[in-house]
Each structure stands twice: as C-alpha cells, then as structure tokens.
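Please produce the structure of this protein holding FE2/S2 (inorganic) cluster.
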Amino acid sequence: MIDAESELVVDCDWHYQDSFKEVAEYMPEPWYTKYKNSNWDDAGVKQNLSSFFPTSTGDRQNYGKVLREHSNYPEEPEDPERVTEGMDFLDIDVSLQISHLILAMGGVTADDERVQAFTKGYIEYMLEEVLDPDEGVYGLAPMPYGDVEASLDILERVEDEEAYVGACFVTAGASPPLGNRKYDPIYERCEEMDFPVVYHTGGSGLDEYVRAGYQEMIETHTLGFLESNMSQIVSVACQGVPEKYPDLDIVFMESGVTYIPGLVSRLDEEYLKRPEEAPLLDTRPSEYITDFYFGTQPLEVSARNDLLELCFDMIGTDRLLYASDYPHWDFDSPSIINELPMLDDDERRAILGGNALEVFEI
Amino acid sequence: MSDAENLVEVGPASEFEDGDAEIVQVGRAEVGVIRAEGEFYAIRNQCPHDGGPVCKGNVQKELVGEFKGTGKRVDQQYSDTDIISCPWHGWSFELDTGIHIGDDRIRVPTYDVVVDDGIVYVDKGD
Ligand code: FES
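Below is the modeled complex.
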C-alpha cells in the first residue's frame, strides 16, 4: 500500500453544486436578463434543472412579462384557499379541479406504480382538503390508464363521492393511443357510472416527444397541446369508442377550437377512401367527433371572426364548455365567451355554464 | 318488364365472367355493366369523388367489423355485400345500390339490368 496522502490523487468526477443564480451573473445577454426575470432565484441546487436546460422550452411566464398573481408555479404547496380566491377573481361559481402534476404522467416509462400511487393519494387528498360541492369545487378523477385495474379501483372509490364528477385522461404521451381496446373496461365503467371522460391535453414541457430541438415555448406550446389531443381524438373516433359506448360523454380540453374543423375534414377525407379501416363507424368520423364536448380555452379570439363562427357552428354551441385553465399563464376569463359577437345570450349561458351542468350532472 | 325502347343492349350474358365489366353509353352517361357472383349490376362509370372510372375497379365483398365486447378485438369479416372500388382513390360503393360504404349520403346512380333471351340490356330508366 502507498501512503495516499502523500501521493498525487486525481478525482475525475466531482459534482460542483452550481446554481443558476450564481452562474447567471456571468451569462451573456439576452440570457442573463431572461434568467433574472424568470423567478428562478434563490432555489439553490434544488431548482428544477429542466426549467433552464431543454427538457422543456422556455419560461411560461414569458421571462417575466406575465406578472399576474398565482400565475407562476408556487414555491410553496398549493393552498386550497387559492381555489376559492381564484373563483372569486374570475367570478366562477363551479369549478372542476384537475391535477397539475398528473399532466407529466405520459413521460413515465418505468414499469412501477408511481402513477397509480400518485392518483390514489391525489383522490384522497382532494376529497379531504380541497373539493367542496357546497362551494362549487368539484373534481375529475385522474386515471392511471396504463393500469386498467388501478383505474377501475379509482372509479370504484369515487363512485359515491358527490365531489367527483368525471374521469380525467391525460392525452400527452398515452401509448397505445386511447382508442385502444385495452382501455375498454375503463370506458365501460365510466358509461355505467354516467361519468364523462375528460381528455386533457398536455405537451408544452414534453416537447421532445414530438420532435426534438424546438427552441421556444411559442413553438412547443402551439404544437404539443394540439398534437396530444389530435392523436387521441383520431384514435378514439376511428377505433369506435362512441359506437362501443354510445352513452359515454366524451370531452376534450385545452386546445382551443380552431383545430377541430381542420382535423375532422382531413379525417373524413381519409375515411371516405378507407372506411373499412374504421369498421365500427356508421358514418363519417366528423359526425362522432362533433358529438364530443370541447373545452374552449385557449380560445383563438385573435382569429378572423368568421373562422371562429364557423368553428362554433361545426362543433355546435351545445357542445362547447367554457374552461379557464386558471391559474395557468394563458387562462381565459368568462368574458372571452361573453364578448363573442356571433353568440346570442342563450348560447353564452350554455357555453359558460349550462352545458357543463348537464354533462357533469352537477 | 321494361319497355323495349328503354333498353340498351350490352351483349350476350354468356360472354361475362364474374368481375367483368362492359361499358356502354346510356344517353349521355357512361354506364358499366358488371357481373358479380352470377348477378348483373349497372352503375354510372363516373366517381362522385373526382370523376374516376368506378367501373374499372375491383369488385369484392365488403369488409365489416363487429364489436364483440369490452376489451375484445373488433371482429372483421367479409360480408355478403358486393362492392366496387374506384381505381383512382378507393371510394367504394355497394354494387346493388351505388351507395358509398362509408357514407350513405354519397351515391353513384345505378340502373336496372335485364337479361332477355341470353342478352344483357341496361334499362335507361326513362
Ligand atoms: S375519383 Fe374515384 S375515388 Fe377518387
């Protein structure tokens, strides 16, 4: 043995616990300013590496431009009070809560039970601490749909809970896509329970799954959400879920409305050439898809008004459900619907509340 | 039985094999007379999609699917319905009715076929 202390020793792998805050002082512009305005300060080494390095693109706070209270992801755990505060702020009477964290479940490829465990815990936590039908705060039960048994357990658990009014399927990353027969038992049970299935998109932070290398959030936030919903709409419709479970209410959330006419037109065109590949359908896929419900947010109010009117017309004002997406940075307040010139007051009422009360039987 | 002056002669029935199509002019329309499983059909040779020659396409049985229960694979079988597929992009129609197999609002006109004394005729339907 040698005396290591008196010998030359080289350690080839030491991890310096650097933090963005200190390094930012030395960053070139514009990154120094972007960083400084991004509320990533003071997190030390515990900060989320992906907030700067590219498992995600950009900062949803637009590097400091979006300053609204509650719009940023809080450093502290969420406080149930903030739900009712937010409802007051938006003048909303009933809200359906979905899990924020579950949106990333599509990225889980490990064959373990983290998603199942999380959803089970979430169901209990929300019942205990947050949901309150007397205050108009209801919940959607997240489905760990990769595990059908666990999903059925959750449905069983919430069946008699007034506070839960539907099941939530995260569309981002679902593989096989959600029209696959593997998920049939979940749909069958939801139909039996009169539980709408709410497909909720995700994807701005999971941009690598579409195509690696996008640079900015404007790119991935536009595409990721659409891609996730479109993949599942095509699968659910072509595989005949609405034919298999005709009383199941199907809702798609959070991609605005202008993508629907384009998608269904393209799908119909394919269908007329290859209908035997969607053998459960009796007619064009668009006829089924426009029977689905669609959350309106983020509504493309900057689009040509006649385009928006056409979209509302194709989908039907009885199929549109106001959604805020609060407190996310790109939330819509109810005035987004109320100020649309092509609606009459009955249609405004239906989209802002009436349709949802019916679908979710609140 | 149709009026004789309404009939357009196509040819001897004995010259048709299953799957054969013979194009005749009926008024201003081109019509294909097709034999499938011993039966004769007549259908306008102009696809409602983009004008393709429907009658030049394949004649086959329609592939249909049946839901067999939760979690089960959709059962796919060829039914008894004869269809013809436009050779340009595959729009497919029931030979008997001319109705598109995916959307019954789309239809190719069909005509009655008469076989009299071994000769095949198309009824103009006037
Ligand atoms: S022209 Fe017949 S399918 Fe296109």
